[in-house]
Each structure stands twice: as C-alpha cells, then as structure tokens.
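re: that chain from earlier
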Amino acid sequence: MGDIAVADTDNDGDQDVLLGGSLGGSSKATNLYLNNGNGTFSLLANTVFWATFLSTLDFADFDLDGDPDILITGSISGAQFAAQVYENAGSNSFIPADTLVPAYRTSTAIADLDGDTDPGLVILGITNASNPFRTIAYDNTAMVVAVKGPDAAQATQAWPNPTAGLVHIDSGREGRQQLLLYNAAGELVFQTKANARGITLDLQPYSPGIYVAKVIPEGSPAGFIKLIRGDTRYVNSR
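^ sequence. v structure.
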C-alpha cells in the first residue's frame, strides 16, 4: 500500500531513504530518513511531503542542479489524490515545485522523453474516483513539469502489455508516424517509422524491465505509453 525510494539527498556519499504508505486505519505518512553513515537512520523533521498510500515515490534531478528532487503520487484521503514534485533546495530542504494531475494506484517512469537532457515523466494511474486508468506524459520545462499532449497520450494504447515478445501500439491517429523506444535510463534503444495507425514492436531482444514508447503522428501531438517487457518465465505463461 506504499512505496520506497533511495537516493543521496544531501550529497554526503551515502543513501538516504524515502518511505511512504499506510500506517494502519486511516493513518498515512511519507518520511525521509537520513543515513547517519553507521547503519542507522534519522527522521528528517518538518517536511512538507503529502502523506499518501496506493502511491509511488521517485527521486530524479528534475532541475539538473546535481541533487535529487522528489515526485510523490497517491491517495491522500477519500477522493483526494496527489501528484507533486518537490525541489531539493539543498541541505535537505524540499519545497513544492509543481502540482501535476492528481492520481493514485499509480505507476511512474522517468526518462528524457524529448532528447533535451532533462527528465520528463509518464504517470499511469486513476485520476478521479470514477475514471479508469489514464496515462499522462509530462515535458520538463525549467522545473515546471507541464502536460505535453495529454489527449494524444490518453489515446495511445498497447497490447498485450506486459509482454515478452510482440506488442501492438495504436496511437489513435491515422497516417505517417514515428515510434521512439526508451529504456528506464532514458536511453533511445529503438526507432522506426510507419504509414499505418498501428505499429507492432518486438520486445523480445530487450532485457526485462520498463520502457517508454513515444509515438509521433504526423501533424499531431506525441503520445506516450509505458511498456513492460516481462520475464518469459511469468509473462504469457499458461
């Protein structure tokens, strides 16, 4: 019902821990524990993080200043959800930097989606109490992580997903389009062009893990979708 992420938040050479989730009942917490360097951790007091569950926690240097910033998504209470970026201002001081479309039961991927060296986001999750899952891509523009083509992102679909082999990607647009495939490190691992609405991609040559497909229909905004290249021992087994 929660998540964990690790990073050296204070650049002292050891890994600190961000931990969030349900404490039982209606209680929730998101806490940052600082590594004391001797196998013990100290709670960082007076943080401004949303306390969430059914959530994701991520570290990424969104503003490229050399220290890890934080992304928190998840359920706060009832029908209230969160998707918030916190800037690391140094000395373990975190400040809210940008509020995204709130979501819970989320899955996230962080990568340089447009080749401009800064990390963008793809968030899959439920955005309100009655909505099905949505996939929304965000372009990083000077720490303000703005939605880029949400309609196209929402229209883009892939099946089967997860898969250990072929996956069919449908952008919802007709005509010429380009597909770019990125791994979880933001590296471009494959690209192709097609004159059809759908593109079939073979994930079998790639290692199991998370990938992001960027589909660029001619004359339309780009769409993004997260692909899971599964382990052949568990995907499509009967």
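The radius of gyration is 19 Å.
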